[in-house]
Write a structure and sequence with these properties.
Blueprint (H helix, E strand, L loop, with lengths): L1 H18 L5 H4 L6 E2 L3 E8 L7 E7 L5 E8 L7 E5 L2 E2 L2 E7 L3 E9 L10 E11 L2 E12 L2 E7 L2 E3 L5 E9 L4 E5 L3 E4 L4 E5 L2 E5 L6 E5 L15 E5 L4 E4 L1 E4 L3 E6 L10 E9 L4 E6 L2 E11 L4 E6 L2 E11 L9 E4 L11 E7 L2 E3 L6 E4 L8 E6 L2 E4 L8 E2 L2 E4 L9 E3 L4 E4 L36
Parallel strand pairs: 2-10, 11-13, 12-14, 13-15, 13-16, 14-17, 15-18, 16-19, 17-20, 18-21, 19-22, 20-23, 21-23, 22-24, 23-25, 24-26, 25-27, 26-28, 27-29, 27-30, 28-31, 29-32, 30-33, 32-34, 33-35
Antiparallel strand pairs: 1-3, 3-8, 4-7, 4-9, 5-6, 5-8, 9-10, 36-37
Length: 462
């Protein structure tokens, strides 16, 4: 009897609770709908087969009561190139999500595109449906996809054309005795840590003014436009004579790395002309162990350490170049050393010419020479008609007719137009004006004819 009484009381209590106003589902949840931080999520151009960065938007419940999201669905289903993650849970379909009043959720979205066999970008679209209280709301998704030639640990030879971008994974090797030619206007993209490796072979980069060959990372989203260290760089190992003309090399680790001279002691392993090398996490040009290079009309700037680093000797000949620090660089624009880690083992600098060039940047001294001279060492440095920023005027006899900015003298500097924007033209009262000496380099990096005497640096201001 006692048990029966208790049971009757419990049943009565439950019935009472169910009839209390405000305790039904309708009183705990709103009949309103959702708000979103955007109506269309757009991805920048993404290479086919390469995943995008993760983008996000927020889902808001701006009501004063909780809301039950009946379903969240990627409309393209399993065939969609997009992938979803709702507040930490992956999947293309989510159901019965409760969102508290005046609260929000994150939706994360990524995309990986298949090969489209088209040279021009194409637009891929999809949408995410949110169903609440019988109403469907949508957030649209859009991505521009670009097909490309993909090089994954392959043998590079012949001609790379400009009809589609070229994307390097791992490495692309120009092997011994082979030749790779890259046409003007070609876009070369390198994946993380990737390298274009030239081994006992030749590379010819045939850009021209306003149709340069561009080397950069393979992330095309705008936030990667100015991120260094996205790949390694172009590596020459005992190269046959190679030429890079009118190129832009940016956002890597070491823009151009040259190791050893190879089997052509009478010529330069690499010649680089009319080229911009900038925003690398370590070096613009890295010469190691008797490397040889000739450079004309080069703008090398905003690199993490040095614009030019020479270790363990080299042969180099630079004319009308800008070796610049700026950016985050706190190391001299040029560092030259004829040994590596053991000062007892020194190498030669058979030729060390720097003519008509600018050495400038953020710090007091943008040139450091750390060389050891022994009775058998060759140290043929020859630096003429250069603008040099240093903490003192160097008196070594191989400096000839140079202009010296001692420390950070505010009244004697190159007076570039806009360092932050990479505009290294200069004003009419710059000391660079007319301070060079004549050479066979008749035009500057912008195609302007040089005066006589010419200006110092890669740009001639007429």
């Amino acid at each position: 009897m006692r048990f029966t009484s208790i049971l009757i009381c419990l049943i009565g209590l439950c019935f009472y609770l169910l009839t209390i106003p405000g305790c039904t589902k309708e009183t705990f949840t709103t009949s309103g709908n959702l708000d979103f931080s955007l109506d269309t999520l757009v991805f920048d151009t993404v290479f086919t087969t390469i995943g995008s960065t993760t983008q996000q938007f927020k889902i808001y419940n701006n009501n004063n009561k909780s809301i039950l999201i009946d379903e969240v669905e990627l409309m393209g289903g399993q065939d969609s190139p997009f992938r979803l993650n709702l507040d930490g849970v992956s999947g293309i379909n989510h159901q019965d999500i409760s969102l508290l009043e005046n609260d929000s959720l994150y939706m994360f979205v990524e995309v990986t595109l298949g090969v489209n066999n088209q040279n021009a970008p194409l637009v891929i679209e999809d949408s995410i449906r949110f169903r609440t209280n019988g109403l469907d709301q949508y957030v649209n998704l859009a991505v521009w996809g670009q097909d490309a030639y993909f090089h994954y640990q392959d043998q590079a030879q012949g001609v790379w054309t400009s009809d589609k971008p070229h994307v390097i994974y791992g490495y692309s090797l120009v092997d011994s005795a082979e030749t790779l030619t890259i046409d003007a206007g070609t876009q070369v993209h390198l994946h993380k840590n990737a390298v274009l490796y030239v081994y006992k072979s030749s590379l010819f980069v045939n850009g021209f003014l306003d149709n340069e060959v561009v080397f950069q990372g393979d992330r095309l989203e705008a936030l990667y436009d100015d991120v260094p260290g996205q790949y390694y760089g172009i590596y020459f190992n005992q190269a046959e004579p190679s030429v890079i003309d009118y190129a832009v090399i940016k956002n890597g680790t070491s823009g151009i790395h040259v190791f050893n001279e190879g089997n052509n002691p009478g010529s330069y392993a690499v010649t680089v002309k009319n080229t911009k090398i900038f925003n690398h996490s370590s070096y613009g040009l890295f010469l190691f162990d008797d490397a040889s290079i000739k450079g004309e009309n080069l703008l090398i700037y905003k690199n993490g350490f040095h614009a030019l680093l020479v270790l363990k000797g080299a042969k180099f000949n630079f004319n009308h170049c800008d070796f610049l620090g700026y950016g985050a660089a706190q190391s001299p624009a040029i560092g030259i050393r004829n040994y590596y880690d053991d000062p007892s083992i020194v190498s030669n600098i058979d030729e060390g010419k720097i003519y008509n060039s600018v050495l400038s940047g953020n710090i007091e001294s943008e040139l450091v020479l750390d060389t050891i001279l022994t009775p058998s060492t060759i140290l043929n440095l020859d630096i003429q008609n250069c603008f040099i920023q240093a903490n003192e005027v160097y008196t070594e006899p191989f400096f000839l007719n140079c202009l010296w900015r001692v420390g950070l003298d505010e009244f004697y500097k190159p007076k570039f137009n806009d360092v932050g924007l990479g505009d290294f033209g200069f004003s009419n009262d710059s000391p660079l004006q007319g301070s060079g000496f004549g050479s066979s380099i008749l035009t500057d990096i912008l195609g302007n004819f040089r005066n006589n005497p010419p200006d110092i640096g890669a740009i001639e201001e007429n």
